[in-house]
Amino acid sequence: MRKQRFWPMMMVLLGAIYFVVPLYATFEFSLRERRGEYSFDSYGNVLSDSQFRDTFFYSVVLALATIVISLGLIVPTAFWVHLKLPKLRPVMEFITLLPFVIPPIVLVFGLIRIYSRPPFVLVSSPALLVAGYVILSFPYVYRSVDTGLRAIDVRSLTEAAQSLGSGWFTILLRVIFPNLRVSLLNGAFLTFAIVLGEFTMATMLNWPTFGPYLALIGQNRAYEPAALAILSFGLTWICIGLIQLFNRGSQGQSQLAGTR
Amino acid sequence: MSFLELENIRKSFGNTAAVELFNLQAEKGEFVSFLGPSGCGKTTTLRMVAGFEQPTSGEIKVGGVNITHQPPNQRQIGMVFQSYALFPNMTVANNIGFGLRVAGKSVAQIQFRVEEMLRLVDLEALGKRYPHQLSGGQQQRVALARALAIEPRLLLLDEPLSALDAKIRISLRNELRAIQRRLGITTIYVTHDQEEALSLSDRIVVMNAGRIEQIGSPFEIYNFPATPFVAQFVGTLNVLQALVVDQAQCHLEIGGQPVYTAKPLGNTPNGGRLSVAVRPEMIDAAGEDEATLHNQLRGTVEDVMFLGAVVRVRLALPDNKIFFDTFNNPHLETPRLGQSVTVRFPREAVLMLDNRVPAAS
Lengths: 260, 361
Prior knowledge:
The structure holds two protein chains of two kinds.
Chain A: H1 2-30, H2 41-48, H3 50-84, H4 89-101, H5 104-115, E1 116-117, E2 120-121, H6 126-151, H7 154-163, H8 168-179, H9 181-197, H10 200-205, H11 210-220, H12 224-249, H13 251-255
Antiparallel strand pairs in A: 1-2
Helix pairs in contact in A: 1-12, 3-6, 3-9, 4-6, 6-9, 7-8, 9-12
Chain B: E1 4-13, E2 16-26, E3 31-35, H1 42-50, E4 57-62, E5 65-66, E6 77-80, H2 92-102, H3 107-120, H4 136-149, E7 154-158, H5 166-183, E8 186-191, H6 194-200, E9 203-208, E10 211-216, H7 218-223, H8 228-233, E11 238-246, E12 251-254, E13 257-260, E14 273-278, E15 295-306, E16 310-316, E17 321-327, E18 340-345, E19 351-352
Parallel strand pairs in B: 3-8, 3-9, 6-7, 7-8
Antiparallel strand pairs in B: 1-2, 1-4, 4-5, 9-10, 11-12, 11-14, 12-13, 14-19, 15-16, 15-18, 16-17
Helix pairs in contact in B: 2-3, 2-4, 3-4
């Protein structure tokens, strides 16, 4: 018994060291702004920097727009594929996985080439950046929505709603969306995290977002990048924590739906 | 003109025909069951009435109006599903009120109707619960209340009791019938369970391989099956191999013993073989009686199955096996294995089976 547990425990310990030591080192380094003593000065500098606040909120707004558009596109599509065209599911999976295969740099050059001349001149609008982010979010959002749709009896729920008089819009709004709450939140948080850290597209399209700001600080300052790294790490953890929280909150509900 | 009319309904998926030439007229307030094995087209037909499937050809009329091409959400037809299909995100009350909310009824109207429906299905106290907090039987009652809340012109039930355990199934079955009678709502009930169909329906449509085999009251279906399929699907049956002795006299021989039928034997010549059927409850072990007009068969007891209320006994004849039921009576002796027993049954009890169909039972 003891022998069986030894090696697995060692592996866990090794993994933890690999993960925790750099994190701790970064944290420790971020506290060294003042010579000879620990302080949170670098955090103060970061948070009081107006550029930090501007780029951060700019990215948050872009992220929210991306989430709304992405969900608005993916949910009805995935719902329809589930209900009427289940044979298209592999095709959908392939299409939504493309952003993993095509590097963002290629994608953004394509976007610039097409949308910088008539009939579509969009390079001067942040809409093009949001459009790019929507594409980047596809794999995450589609996956979570697809999983959510598999967990509920889409066909019966839809038909029940239809027989009670509802049209497609009502079905989506009142029946499908509420029952996908957890999946939608999962997709939304992941999208949020991606958009907040995205660098390539924002730089190439030249918008003042959080990603390029992070890179800029990293080149020019000593302690602030470490503070920023810790901050963004904390933010990601909060996101993951929230996903876990919502998952737990409605587990009973999603498991007991229908007679499976 | 009937309230619900299905005229020459046909449905094919690709090259396979799911439903062929389905014709049915149902009166207002009638309870009609579609009974058949899985894949016989009964659910497909129901889904066409609901509007979830489009018939390949044919017409569906309700109250004289053709609704064949009307979308399902405009048909005002209530539907209850095998999987309940309650909206998991809504309370019981909101589930029941959903159709009314979609129809744009006022809050007060909805509340009044929801309470009325909760009383109808005996769930007054559970309006605030969520579906996952209810038992299967309760969930299905909510589904019934939800379907009835919109005052549908027609109520469709797709194997609503199949997912429930035996006791609940029977109590809910009785409740369903009582509610249907009280509201006088025209109902179509799909099931593969003959007991459900027999106990609930005004009329039964027995289906097989996409075709209607017989339409009739439970009494007619059980006692006068029109086709060999109906005879074998509804109720249990002894299928016996018989030798034709005298076609004109309806004289057969089963296991070397004479058997007479009330119905003509058909085209099988003297000396030919055919299959006949006798329901086990038509047979009794009353002992030998020379004067009787009943058919008598003598055999040895091969098996005795104790089923509770009845005891099912299997006899071995020289070339056939025959089983019959006797009521369980603790004060009488049950037949012993190997004992020789004479059973008898009236001539009318002998059902003729079409001999083209292999006798599998």
